[in-house]
Amino acid sequence: MNARNALPALALLSVLVGAVALAGGLAAGTATAQTANSSADISFNDQVGVEEVTVAEVTLPEGGFVAVYNSSGGLVGASAYLEAGTHENVTVAVSPAFSRSQVVVAEAHRNNGSESFNASADLAYTNENAQAVADTAYVATEEFSRTTATATETATATEPPTGTAATTASDGGDATATDSATETSGPGFTAVAALVALVGAALLVRR
């Protein structure tokens, strides 16, 4: 092949290589995005809370937020912006504060770039089934917790100690009844009664 024919061939080869590289890069980028999306995760445990809740752990491959929803599905709070990676014990302020115990949802959301949560723009991470990456927890209010604790303490305080009845009886709980029975039916009482009977008989004879 002479130099005149070699130049177009080299140019065509360069174009083909570039196209293959571009296609490979796009495919890799798509695969990376899918992998990052599917690796998002969140863990939300049962707890006591009124004005805030704590998410045990959340993994945000591309950074983002944790949004919290009440049992009616209403948005009641969102975390500050979280960098890409895994975060533990993420606290989210709740407004309005919970007035009753309920099941609460914590959801992992992406960041649209502003690093300030926007419910309409910062969409939720999704799993392989196209479902939002979220977890639920039962959040009890402090009032509920205190009421339960008070009821438990009251029941414990009023419960009689084990074996009280037996101990009372053995320690003299029925001492009056026992002593009375002894005094009216014991040997000493029988001798006195007999003596009184004899004296009475003697008096009758003398009359």
Automatic annotation (TrEMBL):
Query: Would the keyword Signal turn up in this protein's UniProt record?
Result: yes
Query: Cellular component terms, GO, for this chain's entry?
Result: plasma membrane; S-layer
- DUF7282 domain location: 40-139
Residue ranges constituting the PGF-CTERM archaeal protein-sorting signal domain according to the UniProt record: 187-207
Question: Where is the chain membrane-spanning?
Answer: 186-205
Alphabetized, the UniProt keywords read: Membrane, Signal, Transmembrane, Transmembrane helix
Q: Which domain of life is it from?
A: Archaea
One of the Pfam families matching this protein, by short name = DUF7282
Q: Where is this region: Disordered?
A: 148-186
What protein am I looking at? PGF-CTERM protein
